[in-house]
Each structure stands twice: as structure tokens, then as C-alpha cells.
Amino acid sequence: MCSLDISSPKDEVATLHSLYPALRESLLSHSHPLRLNTLRLLACTSVKSSVGEQDVVTRCLQGEEVSLDAHGIRERLVHIGRVGQMVKDGDEVSADICTRWLTGASFSIIFS
Fold first, then answer.
1. Residue 20 domain-assigned?
2. Fewer CB within 10 A of the end CB, N or C, for the chain?
3. Domain count of the chain?
4. Stretch 2-13: mean pLDDT, rounded?
5. Is the pLDDT at 6 greater than 70, yes or no?
6. Taking residues 57-73, what's their average pLDDT?
7. How far does the chain reach from its first CA to its final CA, in angstroms?
8. Residue 91 lies in a domain
9. Could you write out the DSSP letters of every residue in 36-70?
10. Can you give the residue range of the structural domain that contains 68?
11. Residue 77 domain-assigned?
């Protein structure tokens, strides 16, 4: 799924904290493909992140991968309800990812 190649020295490894500032606005987008690809990039095993951040990104990605047909809307709403449970106290990056994705995903449901 992820073809990110990190063959640079260890001090130049991609981290979620280094990538996220450039990608955070994409999670607010009304564009499903943009949000989906942003989450896929953040979920790459090559991108270093905490377990909590990985859990939130994975849960958001699962919700984003659900189709927006009549059945998919119900399933996406279930994912939306569960993603907030993954955010741990004090984990600001995970909370920001969750909030931005929830906002973008909600807009796509409303306007679909």
C-alpha cells in the first residue's frame, strides 16, 4: 500500500512530526482522494510515529476507506464515532489529526 522509500541516513528518517505540518490542511479537505492519500502517507510503516498516533491514523484511514454509498454512510458514521476514543490525554498531534479528519469526513457526508 505504501511505497515510501526511506533510504537516507537514520538522522533523516521521516517522522509524523516532520511530515504532518505540511499535510494537516489536507485532512480538512472536502476531497476524499486527498484525505485518503494523506492518511495513507501518514500510515506508512516508513513514517515513524507513536503507538497512539498510529492508532488514530489507522482508525481514520479505516473510516476514510469506506465508500459513500447508502451502506457505507452508516459504516463511516460508526468509524467517526469510534475514532475519538483512540485519542489519549495529552496527545495533541493525535487530537489534531482526529479533529481535522472528522471535520473533513463530515463535510463529505453532508455534501455527498
1. no
2. N
3. 1
4. 57
5. no
6. 86
7. 26
8. yes
9. HHHHHHHH-TTSB--HHHHHHHHHHHHHHTS--SH
10. 51-112
11. yes
